[in-house]
Amino acid sequence: MDAGLAEDMPAAGPGPLQGLKVLDLSRVLAAPLATQILGDLGAEVLKIEQPGRGDDTRGWGPPFLEDGSARPDAAYYFCANRNKRSVAIDFGKPEGAALLRRMAAGADILVENFRTGGLARYGLDAASLLRANPRLIYCSITGFGQTGPYATRGGYDFLIQGMSGVMSVTGRPEGEPGAGPMKVGLPVSDLFTGLYATVSILAALQHRERTGEGQHIDCALLDSQVSLLVNQAMNHLVGGAVPRRLGNAHPNVVPYRDFAASDDYILVACGSDGQFRALCRLLGREDLAADPRFATNAGRNRDRRVLEVELARAIAPWRAADLLAAMERAGVPGGPINGIDQVLQDPQVIARGMLREMRRDDGTPVTVLGFPGQLSRSPATYRLAPPRLGQDTRAVLAEALGLGADEIEALRAAGVIALAEPPPGTGSSA
């Protein structure tokens, strides 16, 4: 194990969601992230995958995790699929759909991200499954939700970033080199929706605890992203102006942006008048702090162009590391712009357990990003590395539905299910 990684250790105790059974009919990112969170917190998650294909992200490489298999899984797949068991069932076949209906009858939570209405033909829609299991919490994640004029459209993160207005406030401003709308460098619309779905599921569990009722949760990428326009939307709703691209500058707070030092870029984030005055003293520009135009944030915002030019001149001669160290001593918020490789080696990130080493059933090690919430009594656990396709089909069908070996073999022979090949280097049957 690499130095600094948190080795997967036996769980200190049951997770807070232990005992809950989750049927995961999702793929790609938003919904798998939600079910991974539930798994991290102790729930049993059964990931239902198409035989022979599996989650689309298994093929979204390179890079791939080289484990000696003919079809190694892509790195993308590992970001949202730990603490799950993979069950390969073709529910396009009547026998496969019947298996899933039986599994849903004993589940607490079902998460799916098929197009609106897409599961009804298999009897796997919310109305059908809630009739059979009124305590079921059924969460649908789509691009635009179950209602409205766009309900039947497919939704993708890139499209939602554009439609939601996020790209209109992301990127260099007009008149600067490289100006134009830009998507965020991470699939934030997917990620936000996965988080909102998890929050909604936990709320529904609390409702069920009080009333015994399950329910249908309708989560949409567009809704989630619009809800997180936050201050930019409120600036428009209150002030009437249409927010515009400001590059790395803040629409409300000044100075709050990147500046070029002599050898690198740094970030300055002054959230108060006192921090601004401290920055001016540090830079030897007390005249800026004393200028009535810049005495308050409202004034600094109004005359930001003039102020930022002066600050840029004062910052330019400094070495980035020296200035950041001086800012820390002076109580001025600031920081570097790390590369992904740098942040994954940062001592604070390591100390907080944000890198976890796990091992797949064949012994192949894989390092994953940790769960960020530090629960003092019931912490997240890292029990199962992201599984191989169909790795757990046989065991789950036997445990959950009581199927015998002959029944399982008949389903396999009919193409209803798939059983994983033995791990590379072993002779056992999966």
Question: If you had to describe this structure to a student in words, what would you say it looks like?
Answer:
By secondary structure, this protein is an alpha/beta fold. It folds into two domains: 297 residues, Rossmann fold (3-Layer(aba) Sandwich); 77 residues, formyl-coa transferase, domain 3. 35% of the residues lie in helices and 14% in strands. The chain contains 16 helices and 13 strands. A seven-stranded mixed β-sheet has the order 7-6-5-2-3-4-13, sandwiched between helices. A three-stranded mixed β-sheet has the order 1-11-12, with no helix packed on it. The chain has a three-stranded antiparallel β-sheet with strand order 8-9-10, with helices on one face. Strand 2, helix 1 and strand 3 form a beta-alpha-beta unit. Helix 1 crosses helix 5 and helix 5 crosses helix 6. It is elongated and about 85 Å long. The protein starts with 5 loop residues before the first strand and ends in a 12-residue tail after the last strand. 35% of the residues are buried.
